Amino acid sequence: MDLWQWAVLIVAVAFAVLVVFLIKTLQAGTKTLENTAQTLKEVQKTMDELTYEVKQVVRHTNDITLDANHKLKQLDPVMESVKNLGNLLNEVTLVTQQYSHRMIEKAKQHKEKKEHEKREHGGSDNAALLPASGDSPTVRTYNATYGTGSGDRAGVQKFAKWIDTGASMWQKFRR
């Protein structure tokens, strides 16, 4: 055989070997692409499931938010009433404080008046401390505030009327 024939035979064998290796490489590439396609299908399926679940969570979250907003709006009047009650109590406290100051001033004036009368009339120390009758200003103040023995509830009723009057005045003032 000639050299020329041997060269063609070597080229043919090399080509056959090259084709075999190319076929094996293409088959490996095909398997890799099939595995990649299968993985992508699984990922797509998982994403579809997760998307559905996320949508459900978002819907539930929206429902909860709407419910919470509704309940908070229902509490608004209660909070407004608590605020108004606090304002009313502040005003009642102020009025009570002013009333207490007036009563203290009246008591001081009464004491000064008694001491002045004591100095003018020259009475004894013990006699000046005792009320002359049940008609003294101190007894009248006590009876007006707390009522007499049988009518102890009169002072409480007067206080309740003051509170009612104060509350109605406050409501009219707010409007």
Description:
- This protein has 175 residues and is mainly α.
- It contains four helices and no strands.
- It has helices spanning 3-121, 125-129, 137-146, 153-174.
- Helix 3 (137-146) packs across helix 4.
- The chain is rod-shaped.
- The termini are far apart.
- The relative contact order is 0.04.
- The model is unreliable at 124-134 (pLDDT under 50).
Helix content bin:
over 70%
Rg to the nearest angstrom?
Answer: 51 Å
What amount of the residues lies in strands? under 5%
Topology order in helix (H) and strand (E) letters? HHHH
N-to-C terminal Cα separation, in Å? 124 Å
Number of strands: 0
What's the helix and strand layout?
Layout: H1 3-121, H2 125-129, H3 137-146, H4 153-174
List keywords for this structure.
175 residues; mainly alpha
Summarize the structure.
This protein is an all-alpha fold and 175 residues long. Helices cover 89% and strands 0% of the residues.
